[in-house]
Amino acid sequence: LKQRRQPFKRPCRRERPSSESSRLGTFSMQFTPQQLTGGPKYHHHTRIGNWSEDQELEELRLKDFLAQKDRGELKVTAKQQQLEECLQPAELSESLDGMLHFGMAVMAFSHQSKGWLSVNPYDEVKKTSEAFMITTSARSDPSVRNAFFIDRADDNDGFDDDVVHYGQMLRLVVAPFGKMTRPTFVHSEMVTALAAAKFSRHQEVTALAEPTGETKWQVLYPDIGGRLEMDGEPVPAGSPIVLRHVATGSFLASDEIPYHNIFGAENEVHCFHYFSLSKTQNLVGEFKGDVTGDVPLRKHGLPNIWTFRTATHGGE
Fold first, then answer.
1. Pairing relation of β-strands 252-261 and 264-271?
2. What pLDDT, on a 0 to 100 scale, did the predictor assign at position 315?
3. Which tens digits make up the pLDDT trace of 222-274?
4. Reduced to 3 DSSP states, what percent helix, strand and coil does the chain have, rounded to the nearest 5?
5. What are phi and psi for residue 78, nearest 5 degrees?
6. Which distant-in-sequence residues (6+ apart) come within 8 Å of 301 by Cβ?
7. Do residues 310 and 94 make contact, with C-beta atoms less than 8 angstroms apart?
8. How far apart are alpha carbons 299 and 75 in whole angstroms?
9. What's the DSSP call for residue 185?
10. Judging by DSSP bridges, how do beta strands 148-152 and 203-208 pair with one another?
11. Whole-angstrom distance, CA of residue 25 vs CA of residue 175
């Protein structure tokens, strides 16, 4: 019998194992269909698929968790530490004569948002110096984040005593706590493309670490009709006031605009003149010469009304 000629077969070229495969060994990882499709997988106690690697991965995750717990780097632990640092109790100053004095520790209450002016040291804002966001919080207990010291902005303002008078300039200072390493001052500036309130887009209000000219505020009598007569008079503690920003002429305000942070749902603080739209008898007064056009005659809305609370006044 004639032998059949076998077809020529080219010898298969044996591929060299890659560096990774040679390093891991000749056996490739075996995955279950559940793992390949991204669905639920078998527990490593079930010796199916990549059980050994799953067991090692679970042990590594446990070790990483315990290490972060010991260092205090867990998100739950870090948030708890932040809340403990920011909610440390603070003492407010007493007003024995019923008046506000420079150097007092007070709280500022917004009549519109029904909240207390507060600083969040873990919500930083990009400024020329360290800056932190300010909101109004419903927490009425005095703490390091809502206790402000009244600082005199100008020593030569024409008043010899330490009593705060209407029309006098001041600064609101927050003592260092949390991430704040220096005292900060309530600050605002003109609206720009890079500086504006997050939601209302009015003037942004922050706590700045430098006592610049944009940290000066003026205490005014809230009623427009009696503002001229009350100018220069002492400010009673616990009475409604208006805070005017000296550099821009706008007024400190807070409205019911939710602002969520680590403390929950708070309200935004900004600068804006919430004047009433009516001008009752304004033109008649100008015609008679009783008032001029540069005299403010429109009433302030509730977002511009604040009250300084002391240990003895304003806590009702």
1. antiparallel
2. 67
3. 998 888 899 999 999 999 999 999 999 999 999 999 999 999 999 999 999 99
4. 20, 30, 55
5. -65, -40
6. 112, 274, 275, 276
7. yes
8. 47
9. E
10. unpaired
11. 62
Q: Which residues of 159-187 are buried (b: 16+ CB within 10 A; e: fewer)?
A: beeeebbbbbebbbbbeebbebeebbbbb
> What φ, ψ does residue 254 adopt, rounded to 5°?
-150, 130
Place of tokens 């609370």: 309
Query: What is the reported pLDDT for 283?
Result: 64
Burial 5-20 (b: 16+ CB within 10 A, else e): eeeeeeeeeeeeeeee
First to last CA, the chain: 119
Residue whose structure tokens are 């809305």: 301
Calpha distance 237→217 (Å, rounded): 17
Q: Tally Cβ neighbours within 10 Å of residue 258.
A: 12
The strand ranges marked E within the chain are 105-110, 116-126, 130-137, 148-152, 169-174, 184-188, 203-208, 217-220, 240-245, 252-261, 264-271, 306-309
Contact 176, 241 (CB under 8 A): no
Q: Where are the alpha helices (DSSP H) in the chain?
A: 19-24, 33-36, 51-71, 75-86, 227-230, 282-288
The owner of tokens 């298969």 is: 12
Amino acid occupying residue 199? F
User: Beta-carbon neighbour count of residue 245 at 10 Å?
Assistant: 22
Task: For tokens 């207990």, name the residue.
Answer: 141
Lowest mean pLDDT among 97-106, 110-119, 187-196, 273-282: 273-282
Q: What is the pLDDT of residues 37-54, one digit of tens each?
A: 665 555 656 666 667 777
SS3 assignment, position 246:
coil
